[in-house]
Amino acid sequence: MPIVEVSPGMSIAYEAFGDPADPPVLLVSGFGAQLIAWHEDFCRALAGRGRHVIRYDNRDCGLSTKFDDHPVDTGRLIAAVESGDVPAALAMVPYTLQDMADDGLGLLAALGIERAHVVGSSMGGVLAQLMAIARPDRVLTLTSMMSTTGEPEYGRSSPEAQAVISGPKPSDREGYVAAAERDLVWASRRYGDPAALRELAARSYDRAYCPAGVGRQLGAMILSGSRASALRELRVPTLVIHGLDDTLIAPSGGERTADLVPGAELLLVPDMGHDRPRELWPALNDAIEAHTGRV
Fold first, then answer.
1. Of 52, 78, 187, 247, which is most buried, counting CB atoms within 10 Å of its CB?
2. How far apart are CA 272 and CA 187, in angstroms?
3. Superfamily covering domain 3-156+211-292
4. Taking the model in full, what pTM does it have?
5. Where do the domains of the chain lie?
6. β-sheet with 52-56: strand ranges across
7. What is the pLDDT of residues 41-72, one digit of tens each?
8. How many C-alpha atoms does 271 have within 13 Å on its Cβ side?
């Protein structure tokens, strides 16, 4: 697995598919998700459509740099935010979502890629938005998938999904893998696959189990704020994809994103939740291929 330094003290693990001479597509993973969350077969299928596909581990996840010297007490963090003590909350978190977005841009630079199509999923969609907002000269097109704008009134989780995402996970391998089935609460109602969820959980646990990193990423998300004003000014060609079955980030998050970004295209996908079922890969790759082929 290649690992490159993207800034002093920050190394990012990545994997690439396809011909480097083809247009580059950077796939950005979501909250606590390693690069393997973008399934290898999905990446190869997209690469087969004439794209140079790059997937990578965000900081504090997978094989990229961890911030183990900065433990975050999630309970204290949430209490500080709820009490309005934002300076105290900021002091607990070692980095921001913008720092994470800069890692993706740094990876492209380290690979000698000046401009790329950026596709982000869930929190990865937020990071992709931030890349496009901060450096529109580096982002050929933006695809924001199952994400939102940072405005609390849009993309709200259902109570059941919120309970799962905020609840503790078992630390032993057997319990961790079994608990992956809880994610069915936000999966496609038609194509949700408990076996696939368990398989990904097992691979993730064996590859790089890092629960502390999840807490630090959560802190960065909680303190990220609204991107509404910046999205209104964005002039990067944008595709917004959202599953109609999504209960973790409700479809209103995608709809609001598309409403804010001038000229954005919105694709609402039936039978897709907060997941990418194999059965929908052809449709998703059709959309990404068409969108990235316009520039």
1. 187
2. 7
3. Alpha/Beta hydrolase fold, catalytic domain (3.40.50.1820)
4. 0.96
5. 3-156+211-292
6. 3-7, 10-17, 52-56, 24-28, 116-121, 139-145, 238-243, 265-269
7. 999 999 999 999 999 999 999 999 999 999 88
8. 10
